[in-house]
Amino acid sequence: MIRVLDNNKGFTLIELLASLAILSIIIGLVSSVLINSMNYSERSESKLSLASEANLLLAQLTNYHQSGETYKVSYNSTTTEIKVNDTVVGKPDLQYILVIDQQKYQGLPSSTSSAQSFPDRNIVTYRPLFVELRIIDEKSQQYEVKTVINRK
Q1: From which domain of life does this come (predicted)?
Q2: How many C-beta atoms surround the C-beta of residue 108 within 10 A?
Q3: Are 125 and 65 in contact (CB under 8 A)?
Q4: Where are the beta strands (DSSP E) in 101-140?
Q5: Strand, helix or coil at 152?
Q6: Are the CB atoms for 130 and 105 separated by under 8 Å?
Q7: Strand 95-100 vs strand 87-89: parallel, antiparallel, or unpaired?
């Protein structure tokens, strides 16, 4: 009977508690790294989407400007849309602040009540066009670009 008691091959309570504490620290570190990487991925995906939207809008402006014809930029306060030659540019859930040669066009989402009207503006293509564009999404992520569009 004494031999059986001396032959313990199990873990003590202190060893079990120490291993649980180490395991919980490791799980906490790994989960915080995963959560931070998911948040970063979401933010960078949103930023990439805004950059893509800005590139699309600037490509449309560049195409109009390099066509050699006069074109019109307008802002409709009832529909909160920025239009280039009666073609709506942009998505309805984003806020656009477009400055063309110091004339500001601001397209706000439909839920925003501070929309203002701006007069239609005919853009001539024989001179460079100075453009500032800022796009803001529903999570207040921003993307801003300033550029000059030249005629070919």
Answers
A1: Bacteria
A2: 18
A3: yes
A4: 103-107, 118-123, 129-136
A5: coil
A6: no
A7: unpaired
Residues near 116 by Cβ (< 8 Å), separated by ≥ 6?
Answer: 77, 106
Task: Give me the torsion for CA of 27, 29, 31, 37, rounded to 10°.
Answer: -160
Q: How far is CA 9 from the centre of its chain?
A: 59
User: pTM for this structure?
Assistant: 0.69
- CA–CA separation, 48 and 53 (whole Å): 9
Strands across the sheet with 142-149, in order? 103-107, 95-100, 129-136, 142-149
Q: Check pLDDT > 80 for residue 118.
A: no
CA 3/CA 129 separation, integer angstroms? 95
Contact of 73 with 79, CB cutoff 8 Å: no
DSSP code string of 13-76: HHHHHHHHHHHHHHHHHHHHHHHHHHHHHHHHHHHHHHHHHHHHHHHHHHHHHHTTS-EEEEEE
pLDDT tens-digit readout, 12-39: 899 999 999 999 999 999 999 999 999 9
SS3 77: coil
Instruction: Report domain extents, the chain.
Output: 47-149
